[in-house]
Amino acid sequence: MFESITLLQGLAWGVYIAILATLLRALPGDMLANSKKHQHLLFGSAACLFVLWLFRAGIYQGLNVHFLWLTALTLVLGYRVALLSASIALLGVTLVGKESWSMLGVNGLLGLVLPISLSYLIYNVSFHKLPRHFFIYVFVCAFLPGAMMIALKMLTLGGYYWLENIHEWEVIRDNYLILIPLLLFPEAMLNGMTMTLLVMYKPSWVYTFYDKFYLNDKH
């Protein structure tokens, strides 16, 4: 099942597993065990991500592109549950052969932990430093970070492949990084529209949205 693992891949495995173990210990187990709503959101989101991540394009091994949808996931579920849900989806696409087992740690760190952490950081900074307005929530917390996160993931993963000498820099630049401008707006729209619709029709599903801050007393 496992291919030969390099030192960096082994380190990434270790760090990713340590993060997940810490995450699971910090999760309120009774909430997930007793709340049907949280169970449905956790596993329903993982299923949606799994299906979305099955659709990808690429020429060279590892240099494939797909939408992330992780900024919206973070806003809906919160940091810890979002990372758990995304990890379930990553495990699923790895099990079906869309990703390699040797890359699980790297994909987990660069493709999940980094974008989810930065998306949640942007949300927190926005919540505390900017006016709490519906449009700021959608554009600053969902639309813009969505574009930023897919660019960040592709840049860091491209850098990893170059550092490991898996592909030449010219191959990475001309067949992977060159696609970033084409993906920025669609990824931003996917996250922005998701949050717009959820806040309008299912605000109770959104962990980070509070009516009393974003809607009440707004003129």
Could you outline the blueprint of secondary structure elements for this entry?
Elements: H1 7-26, H2 29-34, H3 36-54, E1 57-58, E2 64-65, H4 70-77, H5 79-95, H6 104-129, H7 134-163, H8 169-175, H9 180-201, H10 211-214
Antiparallel strand pairs: 1-2
Helix pairs in contact: 1-6, 3-5, 4-5, 4-6, 4-7, 4-9, 5-6, 6-7, 7-9
Give the neighbour order of strands across the main sheet: 1-2
The dominant shape is globular
- Overall pLDDT level: 91
Rounded to an integer, what's the Rg over CA atoms?
18 Å
Q: How many structural domains in the coordinates?
A: 1
Write the CATH architecture name: Orthogonal Bundle
Low-confidence stretches: none
Query: Could you give a short account of the major beta sheet?
Result: 2 strands, antiparallel
User: What structural class do the secondary elements suggest?
Assistant: mainly alpha
Helix fraction? over 70%
How much strand content do the residues show?
Answer: under 5%
N→C terminal distance: 59 Å
CATH topology: Arp2/3 complex 21 kDa subunit ARPC3
The ordered string of helix (H) and strand (E) elements is HHHEEHHHHHHH
How many helix segments?
10
Q: What is the tally of beta strands?
A: 2
Return the CATH class: Mainly Alpha
What does this structure look like?
- It is a single chain.
- The chain contains ten helices and two strands, in the order αααββααααααα.
- It has 219 residues and is mainly α.
- The chain has one domain: Arp2/3 complex 21 kDa subunit ARPC3 (Orthogonal Bundle).
- The protein has a two-stranded antiparallel ribbon.
- A hairpin with a 5-residue loop joins strand 1 (57-58) and strand 2.
- The protein starts with 6 loop residues before the first helix and ends in a 5-residue tail after the last helix.
